[in-house]
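Supplementary Note 2. Why include the ligand at all?

Several targets in our set were suspected to adopt different conformations when bound, so apo predictions alone were not considered sufficient. For every target with a known small-molecule partner we therefore ran a joint prediction. The input for magnesium ion is given below.
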Amino acid sequence: MLELYEVKKSFTEPDGGDLPILDIEEFHLDAGEQMALVGRSGCGKSTLLYVVAGISRPDSGKVMVGEWDITLFTEPECDRFRAEQIGYVFQTFNLLPGFSALENVLLGMCFAGGRIDRARARDLLERVGLGHRMTHKPTQLSVGEQQRVAVARALANRPKLLLADEPTANIDSGHQQQVVDMLRERCREENVALIVVTHTPEVARQFDRIDNLEEINRAVVVK
Ligand SMILES: Nc1ncnc2c1ncn2[C@@H]1O[C@H](COP(=O)(O)OP(=O)(O)O)[C@@H](O)[C@H]1O
Ligand SMILES: [Mg+2]
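The joint prediction is reproduced in token form.
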């Protein structure tokens, strides 16, 4: 369901030079497949997720999500496609500060143009252990709790592909397993393809497939 071909992405160095970050010949992920993406800090993991989500455009190459090459979409088409098809757990959460935990999850459904399903939103929050914090706003939640709201929100719109950037980095080990289980179970039940970027060996180890980006990326980023 996800296929990358000859994807290249560079940034401009502060001195104006070209800084190649991604150079990936091929990358495939089947519908419903689950994998961990690992690699040292700075090797391009977040950049790759941004490219896959259409948040950032590659310089060249194809990014096929289902039957669509998202690099051919205009920016509004990309935004629309992402809202409908892709769930994203940002490293920095990106929760809306003026809204409660429950409202943040409901907004995830709203943006996708889907039905507002309160029962599903509540269920997702309960499954990450936040049944008692639904009406709290992000500033009234701990960092780990905010991250768990972000995980629940990413699943709100029933995506086909879920991209999670270090979704357990700020969560204590007790809740870490609960969040990983919830992500994996929900994705299995709903046939959602899942990429989890993680630095935590105990998290990575639970996946049958573990890709190290440094092995598939021909751009040598980390020295
Ligand atoms: N907008 C940018 N301009 C220049 N360099 C960037 C930009 N964004 C990221 N980088 C560089 O790209 C590299 C990969 O970043 P990133 O994908 O965030 O790594 P990871 O998520 O694997 O830690 C880093 O070395 C970072 O400094
Ligand atoms: Mg990152």
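Residues 45-46, 91, 165 surround magnesium ion (ligand 2) (CB under 6 Å). The first helix runs from residue 45 to 53. Comparable summaries for the other entries are listed in the accompanying table.
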